[in-house]
Amino acid sequence: MARITASVFTSHVPAIGAAMDLGKTHEPYWQPLFKGYEFSKQWLKENPPDVIFLVFNDHATAFSLDMIPTFAIGTADDYAVADEGWGPRPVPRVKGHAPLAAHIAQSVIQQDFDLTIVNKMDVDHGLTVPLSLMCGEKDPVQDAWPCPVIPFAVNVVQYPVPSGQRCLNLGKAIRKAVESYDEDLKVQIWGTGGMSHQLQGPRAGLINQAWDNAFLDQMIADPAALARKPHIDYVREAGSEGIELVMWLIARGAMADVAEPAGPAPTVRHRFYHVPASNTAVGHLILENA
Length: 290
Fold this sequence. Notes:
two-stranded antiparallel ribbon, 10 helices, alpha/beta, Protocatechuate 4,5-dioxygenase, Chain B
């Protein structure tokens, strides 16, 4: 059967993609950030997945205020890189895994989660920046990402957004779906977005390092308690865009220790935190299932 081998958590700051695309990764401002992902790139080469299930939020490219799905799963064979106003990022198209995506959709919907099925979707920096951070720079014509990717978009832009508990439970349902797929596949689930940041208003530029690191501690050791954290805590402590962090709970919910029956706690393979990247705090974790 298919199985989830690891979860990866990372911010998806658009300026990180721009720094890579414009050859700025070795500049003093950006060097410390990219150094924090050197281990991760090597780890991914040594632990290659067959499929990545990547949880992200769309930034008004695939969806708009005309239509806002709470949870949307990409079931296409491939996905174009979105033009976010200054041309698509110069990275490879994203190949999907339609059979596994369709199976996950079927299973998760039968577990009483309503998903929007998306058969055509352009993917923006929310998905491509995590791939770039973990896989390194790729030529858009000559190269390809190391494996197929299933995009899973979550609404954390327009309220009401899903609760942390809903996201953790959804991760559990995704785990069951993956494990019921009748093919021997190694699947990694990635949760992206955050950490603390606010892009507008009187608190624009807010970064709360203490809150971010406490969140990372709980993400590792006590995701059940973290899932009970109300939205107002994210907004007050981590800024208006800090709510993106609920997406990490989907990936965390797919790990063995929160399954029923519970398995062993995951191994922390890497932890990294850095400020600032543009006006955002960057957090990163790699957890391996036993």
